[in-house]
Write a structure and sequence with these properties.
The N terminus is likely disordered. The strands form three sheets. Strands 2-1-3-4-6-5 form a six-stranded mixed beta sheet. A two-stranded antiparallel sheet has the order 7-8. A two-stranded parallel sheet has the order 9-10. The protein is built from 16 helices and ten strands. By secondary structure, the protein is α/β, with parallel strands linked by helices. The longest helix is centred in the N-terminal third of the chain and has 45 residues. The chain folds into three domains: 146 residues, no CATH class; 125 residues, NAD(P)-binding Rossmann-like Domain (Rossmann fold); 194 residues, no CATH class. 51% of the residues lie in helices and 10% in strands. The two termini are 32 Å apart.
Length: 505
């Protein structure tokens, strides 16, 4: 469906403006609630762990000389244990409240390392003052002060180290271009240019600038581009998806109808929206302010990213690809020799494919066709057995004898485990398309470029012989929307059976 048609079919909605504003704020708050809860739970675990270590140390160095009889020893009796537990709950509650007020539970792109460490120490110090004051007021002098002070010291140290380690991982990922988000800026004024410079000069923020867009005029304008430019509202989202944009920043005033329409389209196509505060009176009431470096923004819509799941998926990719490369090395050598003996030409064939967020890479395969297969492609276009964008011909005369065997058992794709190790592909995911195929995609088809392409996927194990391109796309979208590590494991298990069945062509 063209962008203009999609725009015309968007419902106007019957809710009042106040209900819509509340919905916008709720959408933004729900996006960060899961991450904030995780940080709170980790803070509680740090407090519990610090108190246990402090208590065990006190018992071990006290008159009792051992940790046996924990609550019956002369060091801590049952009454003191109850008071100590109550104080721990107070410490956890106060630390969480203070950390929330200092925005330490906001997303990871808040401030710098030193600023975050200083806020962490401040939060622990404030919670510690409240704890010691309460202990004095309730007459808990029998609680060893060494336990309280050691607990506070351990909690401060563990929280600081944890946030420091998390920042280190973020910086490492940004250097490896992992998790980079493509961004477009609405507006072309000084604020927009300053935000662009901020993104480009601070790589660990995790953004790749894709271009400027200006809706202040109604004339026809050029498409979004990395060098900047202006785009019309009519074709804006087509360009956004074509550029694999993840976030849109509003830095200049726009008509309220444009903002409303953009938010609706962003929800449909999974694009995040942020605006600079004070630009849109009423739209951001009750919205939380988040900082991108030094720039305050108010998120209107956010797609939750399962960072833990993505980390586990990457670990699984590295483990499986490493095992395959090592264990199947003799088979790979045998295939290489067979290809050389069967026909002239290189052992491997690489073609440029489109990966996650539109990034291009060289996809590796064992060569299964004659050396000049690409030049002879037009000769066999009439033999295509697929519809629309895809091309497949079972009786393609360009395929060599050993190539037919390799394709039947999918052995030609073994070199792609090298692409997995490089971080260009995953073991499970949509197949990487050619650039010529992506040019024919509709707006909805570009969703499959939101994830890493894979060696195998839902389509390969469920509808490999289905010639329908829409079925191909729908299965990829279903995989993206229902992804889990368990789903990947099931697809991998089914892939083994499909390979041995020899259903490839």
């Amino acid at each position: 469906m063209a962008t203009s048609e999609l725009w015309q079919r968007l419902p106007e909605g019957s809710s009042s403006s106040q209900q819509w504003k509340a919905g916008v704020a709720g959408e933004a708050l729900r996006g960060s609630r899961g991450a904030a809860t995780s940080w709170m739970v980790l803070d509680g675990i740090a407090i519990l762990g610090g108190a246990m270590i402090a208590t065990l140390y006190e018992l071990h160095t006290g008159q009792q000389g051992s940790v046996s009889g924990l609550w019956r020893s002369q060091t801590i009796d049952s009454r003191q244990a109850g008071i100590l537990l109550a104080l721990l709950f107070l410490l956890a509650f106060s630390l969480i409240v203070v950390s929330q007020r200092l925005h330490l539970y906001s997303p990871s792109k808040v401030g710098g390392i030193l600023h975050e460490q200083w806020l962490t120490v401040q939060a622990c110090f404030a919670a510690g003052l409240l704890l010691t004051g309460t202990a004095y007021l309730i007459g808990a002098e029998s609680i060893p002060r060494s336990i309280i002070l050691t607990t506070l010291g351990l909690v401060t140290l563990s929280l600081s180290l944890r946030r420091l380690a998390y920042r280190a991982f973020l910086y490492l990922f940004s250097k490896q271009r992992i998790g980079i988000r493509n961004a477009v800026i609405i507006g072309a004024g000084p604020t927009a240019h300053a935000l662009r410079d901020h993104m480009q000069n601070i790589p660990h923020l995790g953004y790749r600038f894709k271009g400027f867009v200006d809706f202040s005029t109604q004339e026809s304008h050029s498409k979004v581009g990395s060098s900047g430019g202006v785009g019309s509202l009519e074709a804006f989202f087509q360009d956004v998806r074509g550029q694999a944009v993840d976030e849109i920043f509003f830095t200049a005033p726009c008509e309220r109808d444009i903002i409303r329409g953009m938010l609706k389209l962003a929800c449909v196509h999974g694009v995040d929206l942020r605006i600079v505060p004070d630009l849109y009176d009423g739209l951001t009431w009750n919205g939380s302010i988040e900082y991108i470096g030094h720039f305050p923004t108010i998120p209107l819509h956010r797609i939750q990213t399962p960072r833990l799941g993505q980390t586990l998926k990457r670990a699984l990719d590295i483990l499986l690809s490493g095992l395959v490369i090592v264990l199947l090395a003799p088979l790979v050598l045998a295939i290489a020799i067979a290809i050389k003996l069967d026909s002239p030409g290189p052992v491997h064939y690489s073609s440029e494919r489109v990966g996650k967020k539109g990034c291009r890479f060289r996809c590796l395969k064992f060569r299964t066709m004659v050396r000049d297969a690409d030049e002879r492609r037009n000769e066999v276009l009439h033999m295509n057995e697929r519809d629309s964008v895809l091309f497949k011909a079972a009786n393609d005369p360009r395929i060599t004898r050993i190539g037919r065997f390799l394709r039947k058992y999918s052995l030609d794709e073994l070199p792609q485990f090298i692409n997995v190790l490089r971080g260009e592909m995953s073991v499970v995911g949509p197949r990487p398309p050619l650039a010529s195929e992506v040019k024919k995609y509709k707006l909805s088809h570009l969703r499959r470029l939101d994830v890493m392409p894979g060696i195998t996927g839902l389509w390969q194990v469920q509808a490999r012989q289905d010639a329908s391109f829409e079925s191909y796309i729908s299965l990829d979208i279903a995989y993206i929307e229902n992804w889990s590590i368990w789903l990947d494991l099931k697809i991998i298990a089914r892939t083994v059976g499909v390979v041995f069945a020899g259903t490839g062509t």
